[in-house]
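Thread: Newbie trying to understand structure tokens

Hi all, I'm a second-year student working on a class project, and my supervisor (Dr. K.) asked me to get a predicted structure for one chain before our next meeting. I've only ever worked with sequences, so writing a 3D structure as a token string is new to me. If someone could post the tokens and maybe explain what I'm looking at, I'd be very grateful. Here's the chain:
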Amino acid sequence: MKMSKTMLAALLTAICCTQVAAQRPNSADGGFRRESFPEGSYSPVTNINRRSYPRVLSDNSVMFRVNAPQAQRVQIDLGGTKYDMKKSDTGVWTLTTQPQVPGFHYYSLIVDGVSVADPASQTFYGCSRWSSAIEIPEAGMEDFEVQDVPHGEVRTVHYYSQPEGTWRPLMVYTPAGYNESKQEYPVVFIQHGGGEDHRGWMEQGRTAQIMDNLIAAGKAVPMIVVSANSNVQSRNGGMGGGYSWQGMQAFRNELIENVLPFVEKNYRVKKDRKSRAMCGLSMGGGQSFYIGLRTPEVFANVGVFSTGMFGGISGASNFDLEKEVPGMMTDTKTFNKQLDVFFLSCGEQDPRIEYTRNIVKKMRDGGVKVRFNSYPGDHEWQVWRKSLHEFAQYLFK
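---
Reply by user tm_fold:
Sure, no problem. This is what the structure looks like when written as tokens:
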């Protein structure tokens, strides 16, 4: 795509805005003075320059400032809500949003109709593109932050995929002490949502921080966590996917025939089903439901976070538990015996919540042993962090 002069100017000045927000020349003495920010505001950790915009205000609203004098219109798209910015006489565009709920929020600049990442922010792969983001902390969620505890490691490694005919990435968390020990560890295979990839859980999801803090507090056993990229080609062409058992086959084969053998060859993991778990969010929750529950010889622990297959998204309706997982409702005793942990979760403002509650009730009425929890929030990362935080504490005990 050819970049217009307006777009280029807007991007360049947006980058400069990060710098001039920190200090401005003082014409009286030729020196510099500090920028005055709104009282009580702070720079989120997702900013590149901590003395820059955007700024989070005391009520969790967000103030944006973009220097783009040649642009005709600038908007902020924050979590799907678009805000029009106002332009000053000097070409500086400003905006203060409505208060935001705590958590991780993707956003983009829209400059004269072109949506781009904000050069003042770190970027993350989400929404099927590189996006900017704002992190708004939540009180009492210290387990999501780096603490003074022994730290594990997150490594990016590559395995060879036979179906894809190429090397594919994995991100692997190993707990503190892994390098020095000789013991074997249980393993969790954790799956991202649609429009994301293997980086989501380790970067946006803060998996390492959550696991480090839980393990240090004795709330979770030391375990390895593996995040694979489930965006794979189906064997008959096209991208594999869809909320059905058939739609899960491309990634099921990738996971069991390629990822699992690689992990067992290269990491000290226990190789019995009771020492394996599978979980995921949204699309990854659907994968965990089908693959985890219909492959009990591989997984004895399954976590399903914010899936839309029960309802709440286009095309989801009349979910038949017995049809999708044979034996769940007709041979419930065997189904329960095969699982050590079966956990579902959803955000309380997520359109999927009532459908999830209804399916949990149907399971429980039929005798299925399922744990369930909901958390404040929509279809977003703070809910999924809390889901992992709870799920991990149930595992391998």
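A couple of things are worth pointing out once you decode it. The longest helix spans residues 249-266. Residues 8-34, 236-240 have pLDDT under 50 and may be disordered. Feel free to ask follow-ups in this thread.
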